[in-house]
Amino acid sequence: MNKALISVIIPVYNVKDYLEDSVKSVRNQTLKNIEIILVDDGSTDGSSELCDRLANEDARIKVIHKENGGVSDARNVGMEGSNAEYIGFVDSDDFIEPNMYEILYREIEDSKADLAYCDYQNVENITDKPKYSEKKEKFVYSGEEIIKNVLYSNNITMHLWTKLYKKEIALKHKFPVGKTYEDAFFTIPYFLDCKKAVEIRQPLYRYVKRQGSIVNSPYTKSDLAVLEAHKINYNLLKNNPKFLEGAEYRLYWSNFYILDRMLKTDNFDDLENKEKVIKFLKGRYIDILKNKYVKNPRKLAMTMLMINENLYKLLLKLK
User: Fold this and answer.
1) What share of the chain is helix, strand, coil (3-state, %, to 5)?
2) 199: which strand partners?
3) For 31-47, how does the pLDDT look when each residue is reduced to its tens digit (9 = 90+)?
4) In the chain, is it the N or the C terminus that has fewer CB atoms within a 10 Å radius of its CB?
């Protein structure tokens, strides 16, 4: 096989029940000249053996076995072991449309871009038939525009898995080992190195919603990583007037996100960090009201928080 055009990195940790279907969706890509890297992060449920079996079935599959170090460490190891110019990430319990990487590769090459990305859809399980319009749209952005788009969630999120990255840029921005919300740490630094990005407004990635995901889990102190990530991003962007309001908006969003998770968690006991978050938000009250990207319902909730925490919590239950 000629040198792979794309390396698709799949971190693997105790996902034996989902892995084969996920890998199958990558193996069945219409772009055949790909490298599939399964990074076994110390699995103990038989996923390690499954990785080896899948590699024996397809010469394009490369398996890296390592001690457990978390998903960020697995992605870093996968990037370092990749051989292609471009890198994509797929979660081991999700799946992708057969033409996803062919489309992204063609567009990143044709546009001479540093990033290509598509839309995604949430599904309940891998057998769901997604419903979406067949309409396909393409948009090309400057580096400045793509940063603004992600800050304001304008048809792009910080999720890793909808995107095709240049390896030479990605390797400069390693994932923070031991942190959750690693995509928030990675995305803005990568985008700052982008001169051009291309968007394919077509949902080609299928994100399978599972009960154990971070979104569906109670608050834990590890969730505070999202505050750290957006504080770092704010410091990277705050000196550019074009990005300042968006960076502030993301900083407010991350604090609201954590506070909401705290208040929705039964038997919550991290009172010290809750008070820190509330103190930060109250200290930015006027700025939050002035920020045009903070929506009015959130501004109303912030006003309730200034009056009484229980009023804020009541509004949260009504959402």
Assistant:
1) 45, 20, 35
2) 117, 139
3) 999 999 999 999 999 99
4) C
DSSP H helices in 206-318: 225-237, 241-264, 271-283, 285-290, 296-307, 309-318
User: Which residue, chain included where needed, has tokens 């009504």?
Assistant: 318
Map residue 158 onto helix, strand or coil. coil
Tokens coding 287: 């700025």
pTM of the model: 0.93
Q: What distance in Å separates the CA atoms of residue 288 and residue 282, rounded to the nearest whole number?
A: 9
Q: Which two tokens stand for residue 102?
A: 């062919």
Element (H, E) at 217: none
Helix ranges (H only) for the chain are 16-27, 47-57, 71-80, 100-110, 143-151, 167-170, 182-192, 225-237, 241-264, 271-283, 285-290, 296-307, 309-318
Residue 300 CA to residue 295 CA, distance in Å, equals 9
Q: What residue has token string 């076995």?
A: 65
- 65 strand-pairing partners: 40
Determine how β-strand 34-41 pairs with β-strand 61-66. parallel
Do 249 and 294 meet the contact criterion of CB atoms below 8 Å apart? Answer: yes
Map tokens 């580096």 to a residue.
Answer: 143
Q: What is the pLDDT of residues 164-215, one digit of tens each?
A: 999 999 999 999 999 999 999 999 999 999 999 999 999 999 999 876 555 5
Report CA Rg, the chain.
Answer: 20
Q: Are 90 and 22 in contact (CB under 8 A)?
A: yes
The SS3 call for residue 54 is: helix
The helix or strand, by DSSP H or E, that contains position 215, with its residue range, turns out to be none
292-298-303-305 Cα dihedral, nearest 10 degrees: -140
The number of residues making up the chain comes to 319
